[in-house]
Amino acid sequence: MIIKLPFSKYNLQIVRTESDKQVKEEPKTSQISKRNYDKVFVIGYGKTGTTSLKKTLELFGFAVGDQTVAEILSEDWSKGRADRILRYCHTADAFQDLPFMMSGLYKQLDQTFPNSKFILTVRENPEQWFQSLIKFHTKVFSTNKNFVPTAKEMENTLYRYKGWVLDTAKFFWDYPEVPLYNESAYKAKYIKHIQDVNTYFENRSNDFLQINVANKGDFKKFCAFLNIETTMENFPWENKTNEK
């Protein structure tokens, strides 16, 4: 399947390939006993273990959506537009990070793709999440590794396209109304997202799971949630510095 999407800065083409060509071969020690659901959406904020979860899903044979395309499409949702994001969701089995962690998008996904699974990744507490976020952004986007990146540095960063990082700060973190890396505002948004998601999926344990990838017991919950049988005992932990 080929889907062409017009972008403001790029013309990109999404290609759906067979999962055995797109991801690594499924480990012989693992199998999905019963795939009785449609999509898998990871809707936790960045720096909550989403990279580890992506790796796990790939190991278990899920085709994970192209993150470059997804991130470029993210601004659509901030403008109330969902059509291109929904078309993109037909290209794979599982999705994570932007735009799927954006406020309220999970409701649209739940309506459009019934019988799907939603996984909310969280950290131990908001402080742990915030410190991980600023450490990662400082390492990747700042020229002075003792300080968080400035708006100018974000504007000049060549990631996805020049200025995408600053654009994201605007539509996701409400910059400049909210100063960059304002601790109280960022933590409040993180907490509200967790509360809103749990409220929406209340009493829907077959469709929704909240996990902390650092908790060994949550790996078993994750596997049971997706009907995965495996001899693995924990999530494959990606490099902590690069973990999103």
UniProtKB/TrEMBL annotation:
Signal peptide: none
Protein name: Sulfotransferase
InterPro entries membership: P-loop_NTPase, Sulfotransfer_4
Upper taxonomic lineage: Bacteria, Pseudomonadati, Bacteroidota, Cytophagia, Cytophagales
Recorded superkingdom: Bacteria
PANTHER family: P-LOOP CONTAINING NUCLEOSIDE TRIPHOSPHATE HYDROLASE PROTEIN, P-LOOP CONTAINING NUCLEOTIDE TRIPHOSPHATE HYDROLASE
